[in-house]
């Protein structure tokens, strides 16, 4: 079934034409990408190990967790029929005390991915799991359930990550995290898990993309497999349950709902929704997501909640699928009227209601929003001129005011926002009015740097020069790649920015094996919004006006965050 005809000529609708038409009912458009393969299953004998993409777990509950694997033998040879995958969960690493076991079937219609929604486990426990196909067994994964709904856990440790452009280097950050942070309860991924681009001339040697820009389901599946073959990332997935959400590059740079990016290879709505369906399907297939997140054509319910007893509640957002178009021509620009329009939304009305309802009902000490682009304002132009990133909440000012205004009025307890997207580390006070330094601080935003994706060194002086114009910003570092660790207890929220070595000036990760070091750390005290620095440098580097101007020119020319 294709998009419903008669609504619009689907053959040629440009991005801006589509906006003028006011955004059609995209959710209603359902694309069927492939007929379901209704073939008999059987035990298939693989000629080589099918577990080359590793194992993963995710979305922990008090009584369960999702287990994941995807069959991909080195030979690439897969049967044209369904395959039985056996799984088991044990209380010990040696898989002796088995507590659950079962089997699932997978096949070509689901990219040979297997998802198991295991239930009936005990809360706040470590578990181990393994898959078997024929004579082949997978590595043993480790996972962990969350404390029960009525529980009052004393502490939680997790890390958050984002943006892992394969071409900008090795996943040393994942390797370091797996070796150095073994006590983490889970890892949150804030998006840009893959990048859609073709090979880059500036790719780190050995890390080039293996084909042109990806568009079809086969392309997206292949790209996910390329990324998953990275040993360090496989180890991180094996070690920790993940809570994932996507940003733009899992489909296409800077798309907004059904609107592709300017100059897209899939310029019509029909082409783009077909592509979005392919990107979402491959994303689901490759992530440890619950079947409730399984996409239907171009639609996928990804926003969801995670509770950690009464210590923390996580609202995991999707700010791509339902957002209005980036205003004022996108990019880094002065705001035009459209950026201030009440119609602007990042979440869509339904998700916005869901977010507020969840926070209203929350009993949690810390109320964490895990999402994609920077929520706090940042004026990137030093001096009287202004420049804002239209892909961030700065292009959606009314939506931000609604959200921060709600946090304030509803007296949401200890709001914390976690953000990715911009490939650099930041700390912001969330203000009721960013234009008024003396206005109330209602929460704190921590923006984590990328696993690999680049933040060109020439942009650093631009941000630094604009710091005096943005007094709510407590920290910025653009030179490092890594991950961010959060340690919560009932009295404080400690955020530690961890960095891995990069090529000087380039910011790319050129060494696969590395140790992470602490770049800076910040504490938020219970009941006192706003972060206090407890470790790391407090003064910014200085640069010349020439460097700042040059960097600003490059920043405004770049589009592919
Ligand atoms: Fe990114």
TrEMBL record:
Per UniProt, the ranges with Basic and acidic residues bias are 547-561
Residue span(s) of domain Phospholipase D N-terminal: 53-145
Which parts of the sequence belong to the PhoD-like phosphatase metallophosphatase domain? 158-494
In residue numbers, the region (Disordered) covers: 531-561
Ranges annotated as spanning the membrane: none
Q: Which SUPFAM superfamilies match?
A: Metallo-dependent phosphatases
Question: What Pfam families has UniProt attached to this entry?
Answer: PhoD, PhoD_N
UniProt feature, compositional bias: Polar residues: 536-546
- Record-linked PROSITE patterns: TAT
- The protein depicted here goes by the name Phosphodiesterase/alkaline phosphatase D
Q: Give the species.
A: uncultured Rubrobacteraceae bacterium
């Amino acid at each position: 079934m294709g998009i419903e005809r008669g609504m619009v000529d689907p053959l040629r609708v440009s991005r801006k034409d589509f906006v003028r038409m006011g955004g059609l009912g995209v959710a209603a458009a359902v694309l069927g990408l492939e007929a379901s393969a209704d073939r008999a299953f059987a035990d298939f004998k693989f000629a080589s190990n099918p577990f080359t993409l590793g194992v993963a777990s995710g979305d922990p509950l008090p009584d369960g967790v999702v287990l994941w694997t995807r069959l991909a033998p080195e030979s690439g040879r897969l049967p044209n029929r369904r395959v039985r995958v056996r799984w088991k969960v044990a209380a010990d690493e040696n898989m002796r005390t088995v507590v659950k076991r079962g089997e699932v079937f997978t096949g070509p219609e689901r990219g040979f991915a297997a998802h198991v929604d295991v239930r009936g486990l005990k809360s706040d426990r470590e578990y181990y799991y393994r898959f078997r196909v024929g004579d082949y067994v997978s590595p043993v994964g480790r996972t962990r359930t969350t404390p029960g709904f009525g529980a009052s856990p004393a502490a939680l440790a997790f890390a958050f990550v984002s943006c892992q452009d394969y071409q900008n280097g090795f996943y040393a950050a994942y390797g370091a995290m797996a070796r150095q942070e073994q006590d983490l309860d889970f890892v949150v991924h804030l998006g840009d898990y893959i990048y859609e681009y073709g090979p880059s001339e500036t790719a780190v040697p050995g890390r080039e993309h293996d084909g042109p820009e990806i568009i079809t389901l086969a392309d997206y599946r292949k790209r996910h497999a390329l990324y998953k073959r990275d040993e360090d990332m496989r180890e991180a997935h094996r070690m920790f349950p993940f809570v994932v959400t996507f940003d733009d590059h899992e489909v296409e740079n800077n798309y907004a709902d059904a609107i592709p990016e300017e100059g897209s290879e899939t310029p019509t709505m029909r082409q783009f929704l077909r592509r979005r369906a392919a990107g979402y399907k491959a994303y689901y297939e490759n992530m440890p997501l619950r079947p409730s997140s399984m996409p239907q054509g171009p639609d996928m319910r990804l926003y969801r909640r995670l509770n950690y007893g009464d210590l923390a509640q996580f609202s995991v957002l999707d700010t791509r699928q339902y957002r209005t178009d980036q205003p004022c021509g996108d990019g880094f620009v002065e705001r035009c009227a459209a950026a201030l329009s009440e119609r602007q939304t990042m979440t869509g009305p339904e998700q916005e209601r869901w977010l507020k309802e969840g926070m209203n009902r929350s009993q949690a000490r810390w109320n964490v929003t895990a999402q994609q682009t920077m929520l706090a304002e940042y004026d990137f132009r030093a001096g009287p001129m202004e420049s804002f990133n239209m892909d961030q909440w700065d292009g959606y000012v009314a939506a931000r005011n609604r959200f921060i205004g709600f946090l304030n009025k509803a007296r949401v307890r200890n709001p914390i926002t976690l953000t990715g997207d911009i490939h650099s580390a930041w700390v912001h006070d969330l203000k009721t009015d960013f234009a008024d330094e003396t206005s109330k601080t209602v929460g704190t935003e921590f923006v984590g740097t990328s696993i690999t994706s680049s933040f060109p060194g020439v942009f650093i002086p631009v941000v630094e020069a604009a710091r005096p114009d943005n007094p709510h910003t407590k920290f910025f570092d653009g030179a490092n790649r890594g991950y961010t660790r959060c340690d919560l207890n009932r009295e404080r929220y400690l955020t530690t920015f961890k960095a891995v070595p990069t090529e000087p000036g380039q910011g790319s990760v050129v060494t696969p094996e590395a140790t992470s070091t602490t770049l800076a750390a910040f504490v938020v005290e219970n009941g006192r919004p706003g972060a206090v620095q407890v470790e790391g440098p407090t003064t910014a580097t200085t640069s010349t006006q020439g460097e700042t101007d040059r960097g600003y020119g490059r920043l405004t020319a770049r589009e592919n965050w």
